[in-house]
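If your schedule permits, I should be very grateful for your opinion on a structural question. Please examine both parts with care and let me know of anything in them that strikes you as inconsistent. The record follows directly beneath this note:
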Amino acid sequence: MSQTNENTLAVNEASMSAKRGLGFYLRIYRKILVQDLKSKMSYRSDFIISTIGMIATNVTGFISFWILFRNFSSINGWDYYEMLFLYGFSLVSLTPVQCLFDNNWSLRMNVYSGDFIKYCFRPINLFFYYQSEVFDIKGLGQLAFGIGTIAYAWSHMSLPFTFWALCQLIIFLITASLIMIALQNAAAATCFWLTNSFFILDLALKMKDYAKYPITIFNSVFRFIFTFIIPIAFIAYYPSLVILRPDAVPVLSWLSPIFGVVFFYLSYKFWMLGVKKYDFTGS
């Protein structure tokens, strides 16, 4: 991208930030979402099959836990319902990245083909514009299954259900979602520098499978990696401790909301830095 183009983008973004508020973006997103859903619902069979496939995948994970705990009463101090809670917690926290940021999977192709140029000349935040273009509605099936799993595990652990407990659950679910969104944003943005960036995005996707397990089952090396380098421990383990182990909540659990916001912001800045490096001619 030339210096002139970089300056134009910077000026447009600064001007936009000054004039556009949250209400503006919510209205724009509602209009984009309605059109996207209309488009998807015109292919109802594809939607139904995809949703059934998503639910079947989650049911398989549920069954795997059930089979595992038929042979083991607990795993490193975590019983069946606690593990099930982690599983449901991870499903719910992963739903926003699937529903709202699924277009990251198309980023590398748009960059390589040169089609990404169409996003660069709109009087609106480029990151918002690109991500809002796609809403993966089948992720709502995962959301429903995850909520049901949390409720099922919660009831069997006899945890008190209070307004404060519900607020904590929502806050830490949002926190966990921000971590996963940040990982995917950063992984997807590597396509602005690397020709073969798919493996990085695919690795970020596969990392989420480890979020369903307590970090204590790993050795010290992986605990460090999953906490401070690839922070998947903040997707389910640390946030859920506030609910599951309220009498012994580690500091990292209470710091999860801060980490979530910081990681998301850094991933956004990294994504936008990649845009500034984008070559309009494509690859």
In short: The chain is about 70% helix and 0% strand.
